[in-house]
Write a structure and sequence with these properties.
The complex is a heterodimer of chains A (240) and B (226). Chain A has 7 helices and no strands. Helix content of chain A is 72%, strand content 0%. Chain B contains 10 helices and no strands. The longest helix of chain B is centred in the middle third of the chain and has 30 residues. The two termini of chain B are 20 Å apart. The chains are: A mainly alpha (240), B mainly alpha (226).
């Protein structure tokens, strides 16, 4: 039932990704300062924005779960956070590459956005050990939701604290998306932001579909009274 | 229904009395902190500290000592059936959160009452910074008590209890530690206390306290349902 609309969505994602990548490489002007390497910006920043928004969406789903007591929302919340963590790995890697290319170091401690993102990532990385340390499935869902809400409140606070910890003399090397970008760059940036948002949605949908399918298979097996082999029930919440 | 205030006072009194009689957490926390100071003395190879180094040593030590207490905060509730009793009692569940957080706050303040003078005695050249440090300690402790109670109540019901508290709590208190060390750094500076951005950092600490006290209060009900 989660598979509905998956095919058009996947096609739209592939098309959008192809469009934005071709725009990045053939249309976006070369950065006067950094040249070619600046193009990683169109990968890195949208990924980061989508990951952070994904974390917050996971928190919103968690609130829905606690309010409605419907396990479906817990699965949504889990998958949203899961995909965002994967995006987070990509953000840290692309960020490190960019930092090496433009500042000469793989890791730059006085860039507040980088450090904030690392802390948020570490916070959400503990979601998995936390979740699977709780055995009772219903309690697991409830506690995971509480975690998602707490961590969601933590994200903006953390960004504020890290930014303040920096001495204000440090120059902002790149203007962020909402300021100082020339028109063509802005267009390409928005395109790739849309592409990665679509990618995130598609992956979330795929993951939910896979979970729901494996849950159904398991239920059917049980109904047939056949021994369940290779059950991966521990790895992820079930979707009914 | 018993008024929340009565329930709060009863649970808090129970906790403090248990701790006073058994002395389960506090002596261990204080001993741990003092030993950690000694380790820092050799690890850093410094006999006196000031500025950011002093702030870092003090807060890292206090945080890890706090984790010891946070680990044990709900152990009695779990092992002696206190959770069931609370669930059966006609009281607002949030009273448990408030009482536990207040008890933890009291432990932390007691811990600091012992260890901060020892820290000053070991490492600081002058005690002038201790007075403003008091405000930072109090505000940071409130935040630590709120998040610690929340995480502890979840971790105690899991398989990996002692593992989960440090694992989840440490990233969660990073903003708190940034603000606390940021405020402590100039206060413990070598040439006497300075106050650059002191008020701003205190505001961040206050905001952190407020947010996590509210989050804890809001979600704690769901942790007790069963």
């Amino acid at each position: 039932m989660y598979g509905k609309g998956l095919r058009p969505l996947s096609i739209a994602t592939v098309a959008m990704l192809a469009l934005s990548l071709s725009l990045v490489f053939f249309y976006a002007p070369l950065d006067a300062d950094q040249g070619f390497v600046q193009k990683i910006f169109y990968l890195h920043v949208p990924l980061a924005i989508v990951a952070l928004v994904g974390f917050v969406i996971g928190g919103v789903f968690a609130i829905a779960h606690l309010r409605s007591n419907n396990r479906k929302w817990d699965a949504y919340s889990y998958v949203a956070i899961h995909i965002s963590v994967i995006f987070g790995v990509a953000v840290l890697i692309t960020g490190a590459i960019w930092a090496k290319a433009s500042w000469g170091h793989w890791w730059v401690w006085d860039e507040p956005t980088l450090v904030s993102f690392l802390i948020v990532f570490l916070m959400y990385a503990t979601y998995y050990p936390f979740r699977y340390a709780i055995e009772d499935p219903e309690r697991q869902a409830r506690y995971a939701s509480v975690f998602a809400i707490t961590a969601g409140a933590f994200v903006p606070l953390n960004f504020m604290a890290v930014r303040m910890a920096e001495s204000l003399v440090h120059p902002r090397t790149f203007a962020t998306a909402n300021g100082g970008l020339p028109g063509e760059m802005m267009l390409v940036f928005l395109c790739s932001l849309a592409a990665f948002a679509l990618l995130w949605t598609t992956l979330v949908k795929f993951e939910l579909t896979a979970k729901s399918a494996s849950g159904q298979v398991k239920r059917l097996r049980r109904a047939l009274d056949a021994p369940v082999s290779g059950g991966s029930s521990r790895i992820a919440p079930e979707v009914s | 229904m018993t008024p929340s205030r009565t329930a709060f006072a009863a649970i808090l009194a129970k906790d403090l009395r248990t701790e006073l009689r058994t002395l389960q957490s506090l002596p261990a926390m204080a001993l741990f902190a003092v030993t950690t100071f000694v380790i820092f003395r050799f690890g850093l190879d410094r006999t006196s500290l000031s500025g950011s180094l002093a702030a870092g040593v003090l807060w890292a030590t206090l945080l890890f000592a706090a984790v010891l207490g946070i680990n044990r905060l709900f152990v009695a509730e779990r092992e002696e059936g206190g959770f069931d009793a609370i669930r059966l009692a006609p009281i607002d569940r949030s009273a448990l959160f408030a009482a536990k957080a207040t008890a933890l706050l009291a432990y932390l303040l007691a811990l600091e009452l012992v260890t901060v003078p020892i820290f000053a005695f070991f490492f600081l050249d002058s005690a002038a910074g201790l007075l403003p440090l008091l405000a930072i300690l109090l505000l940071a402790d409130i935040g630590l008590a709120a998040t610690g109670t929340l995480i502890s109540s979840m971790a105690v019901n899991s398989r990996a209890r002692d593992l989960l508290v440090p694992l989840v709590l440490l990233p969660l208190v990073v903003p708190l530690m940034i603000a606390a060390t940021g405020a402590t750094d100039p206060v413990l500076a070598a040439g006497g206390p300075a106050y650059d951005r002191f008020g701003t950092w205190l505001m961040v600490l206050g905001l952190y306290d407020l947010i996590f006290a509210l989050v804890g209060y809001a979600v704690f009900d769901f942790l007790l349902e069963d």
